[in-house]
Amino acid sequence: MSVNKLKTVAGISIPDSSIANQATELLLEHGTEFIYNHSLRVFLFSSLNGKRNQLKYDQELLYVSSVFHDLGLTQHYSSPDLRFEVDGANAARDFLKSHGLPKESLQLVWDTIALHTTIGIAEHKEPEVALMYSGVGLDVMGEGYEHLSEENRIEIISAFPRNDFKKNIIPTFFSGFEHKTETTFGNIKADVCAYMTPNFHRKNFCDCILHSPWND
């Protein structure tokens, strides 16, 4: 798999800095073509939402966040016991730290990736966090589809094809945490486990309360 060298898609410039290119190379090395296309679409959708809402944000940090946001699903970056979102966030933080970025930038990228599936919180944080959350929501669930012009949609999908996305994304998610399904407790990825695993038993918050060691 080779990197798509398009510089501009749907009026959005794709960062071409050393940091951006090195991040892309890691995605190409450790990810799949499916995850690569999804990640670049997420960046473009996020950027279009930022442009539409006239938000100020760091384009390079948004790009790096988009590139790393699903790398926690891959074997190279997956831990035995952390949420895949945290694995991706940790990997991006380590990568940017090696480039000498300030603590504030490291934390912003970490939050952007770690919270990208956290409904009800991510959309209220910094522009980078909220924008990538919106880009993921648009690509995965079609949230905000009505704001995407047909021209932009066609151009983005032509550059970064969906490749039967609806059919393939759920198994792709599951493959990244089927060895640690307990990490889906309290988050939307428990739905993926229930879909992929017959008789999957979800951990229940109320059971945790009622069976706690407290004697009241």
UniProtKB/TrEMBL annotation:
<protein>
    <submittedName>
        <fullName>HD domain-containing protein</fullName>
    </submittedName>
</protein>
<dbReference type="InterPro" id="IPR006674">
    <property type="entry name" value="HD_domain"/>
</dbReference>
<feature type="domain" description="HD">
    <location>
        <begin position="36"/>
        <end position="130"/>
    </location>
</feature>
<dbReference type="Pfam" id="PF01966">
    <property type="entry name" value="HD"/>
</dbReference>
